[in-house]
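Page 42, continued from yesterday. The earlier attempt failed because a stray header line got pasted into the input along with the sequence. Redoing it now with the clean sequence only.
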Amino acid sequence: MNEQQPKDKKKTNRILQAVKWIVLIVLLYIGSRYVNIQDIRKTFQKFSILSFILYMAAISISRILYAWRWKINGKRILANPDLPLFYLYHVNNLAEFVTIVMPSSITGEITRVMKMNARGNKTISSTAVLMIDRFVGIVSMAFISIGALLIMGQDFQINLERFIPSKNIMLIISGVLILLVIGLILAWRRIKKTNLMEKINQAWRIISTNSRQIMISFLVSCIAHISFSVSHYFLFREVYPLPIIDIVGIILFPQLARSIPVSVLGISPGEGMMVASQMMIGITRETAVAVTFLTLLGKYILALSGFIIELFIDGIRFFQNMNSNEPVE
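This time it went through. Structure tokens are written below.
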């Protein structure tokens, strides 16, 4: 029985990897049908190396703030709460790398739990802190993004037919729903293997008894989200200058879709919504794709840095454990 489980797990991972590549090929095919490659190439020529470097610097600052939020949330919960800020920043980048290369985006969350456990914390505490961190992040993101959209007002208009031919709207919506179902199935399989309700109850007790600490992490999270959004100013300024509030609205709101546990090589529904949100305020399809591609490239660079640093810290052992163990029990 024990020998059969690793075989079943490897078979499941192979199936998920096959699904991932099939979905990626389909997405690339659909994208190639509705964008002008020549126009995208011309748009890329407008970007300067300096603008991308400034963008990466600003993104790194926002990620440091996200790591600080995580540190604040774990201060009174973890057995070893005094973890260096750089370590938490590195773990976030490592989790991004694992999300890109593994079949499911849930593995990124598992990575964060495993790295916390490696520093002397218990799984249930690490998971509770992670759940609180995600809760604070999503609530603060919704608060800021919805506020920005309300300020933008009529500048932000939903018109699907403007950027998707009407005959293909149902096809694309069906594809999104299929991805959502796959994500929910993966999430449910993971939930079945964890004592989720106990962790949810513990997380709620922590929130209710540490309201001041949660509020501080909420404020830090808001600053981090704003920093993340404003960093895109360095990309937009050369191709489509926008007011800061518009940048916050069209960049931050789509990130809520990243809470759906579906990604293909790091490409989540958030990237699709990011393209759509830019087009809803008049940005051309090709410019929106170019900007989104550069943000994806930035994510890959930071994720790769997490992988390289992990090789220096722990060698290949961590990645072997990821493949051989079920870390969240």
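Notes: Residues 62 and 224 are 5 Å apart (CA to CA).
Reminder to self: strip header lines before submitting.
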